[in-house]
């Protein structure tokens, strides 16, 4: 059995990105569960998170 370590993204960032994509209400209505968010939207959440991380590393905004 594999161990799950703490998430890389903060909960605040997850909700912020979900709101940006328009799925924040889906997550909130399900008590913070992202399982009912489509695979496409989850992929977009990851893409946005990567873009933000890259921008913060380069200092760009």
UniProtKB/TrEMBL annotation:
<dbReference type="InterPro" id="IPR001448">
    <property type="entry name" value="SASP_alpha/beta-type"/>
</dbReference>
<keyword id="KW-0238">DNA-binding</keyword>
<protein>
    <recommendedName>
        <fullName>Small, acid-soluble spore protein, alpha/beta type</fullName>
    </recommendedName>
</protein>
<comment type="similarity">
    <text>Belongs to the alpha/beta-type SASP family.</text>
</comment>
<dbReference type="InterPro" id="IPR038300">
    <property type="entry name" value="SASP_sf_alpha/beta"/>
</dbReference>
<comment type="function">
    <text>SASP are bound to spore DNA. They are double-stranded DNA-binding proteins that cause DNA to change to an a-like conformation. They protect the DNA backbone from chemical and enzymatic cleavage and are thus involved in dormant spore's high resistance to UV light.</text>
</comment>
<dbReference type="GO" id="GO:0003690">
    <property type="term" value="F:double-stranded DNA binding"/>
</dbReference>
<dbReference type="InterPro" id="IPR018126">
    <property type="entry name" value="SASP_alpha/beta-type_CS"/>
</dbReference>
<dbReference type="Pfam" id="PF00269">
    <property type="entry name" value="SASP"/>
</dbReference>
<dbReference type="GO" id="GO:0006265">
    <property type="term" value="P:DNA topological change"/>
</dbReference>
